[in-house]
Specification:
Distance between the termini: 41 Å
Number of helices: 3
Helix content: 25-40%
Radius of gyration: 16 Å
Mean pLDDT: 81
């Protein structure tokens, strides 16, 4: 869950994964990878870049700094390739939310805001 306890457990899972497989290891079907708390259920039609619903990775509006790690992106992709979106009907919808300041900057980047 997306709580302080959930985040602590996630950080411990990451530490264990990197200890076992190494910092530069590839994520595979057999190595799997921990999922960030607050991200969508795996194989639920989630974006592979940010872990939320409502768009696909190629159209992900999330700033790079808030996107999933490369390992988790790969794990989402592998799971979807192998299993498809079998969890789509079971998943709680998780939408990406931005603060107003970021949205104004993002809209400007799309040519819809003030250029000043």
């Amino acid at each position: 869950p997306d709580t302080a306890t959930g985040l602590a457990v996630y950080k411990e899972q990451l530490k264990q994964w990197f200890t076992k497989y190494g910092q530069d290891s590839r994520v595979t079907q057999s190595t799997q990878f921990p999922l960030r708390p607050g991200s969508a259920m795996i194989c639920s039609g989630e974006c592979f870049k940010c872990g939320s619903h409502g768009h696909i990775a190629g159209a992900c509006p999330a700033p790079e700094a808030s996107q999933l790690s490369i390992q988790e992106k790969i794990w989402h992709s592998i799971a979807a390739q192998e299993l498809g979106n079998f969890n789509r009907g079971l998943a709680t919808q998780i939408d990406l939310m931005f603060e107003d300041k970021y949205m104004q900057q993002w809209e400007q980047g799309k040519g819809q805001g003030s250029s000043v």
